[in-house]
Design goal:
Blueprint lengths: L1 H28 L6 H4 L18 H25 L6 H23 L7
Helix pairs in contact: 3-4
């Protein structure tokens, strides 16, 4: 039993160590030549006019969150769809409950106007 948790501890240590080490190596090896042109705001190759810190509508974030929710739904339902014939009936019922709850969330967002693009 303890060996299984040791494996998870080692795996967790590796997953934390690799990104940290690569970021440190990149920080040490990067060229350090700041100049004013590199510090300018750059977007789409067009020079910015006016204030570059513009407030975006929350609508964009709502669409992104809804996309992520349905993307996660697809990730959870794919294994179910692959193994549908081997699963018992109650698993189908739980999958239907899962889909109904997500559909209810979609209807709630629709009723609140979160999907209405202005």
């Amino acid at each position: 039993m303890l060996q299984e948790f040791e494996f998870l501890g080692v795996l967790g240590a590796i997953t934390l160590t690799i990104p940290v080490v690569t970021l440190i190596i990149a920080w040490l090896l990067r060229p350090k030549k700041p100049n004013p042109a590199k510090q300018e705001t750059y977007e789409s190759g067009i020079k910015t006019i006016g204030d570059t810190w513009v407030q975006f509508k929350a609508q964009y974030y709502i669409y992104a969150i809804i996309f992520v929710v349905f993307d996660i739904e697809a990730v959870f339902l794919f294994p179910f769809a692959v193994a549908l014939r081997q699963l018992p009936l109650y698993s189908l019922i739980w999958a239907i409950v899962f889909i109904v709850l997500l559909f209810d969330g979609l209807l709630y967002g629709w009723r609140k106007g979160a999907l209405h693009w202005n």
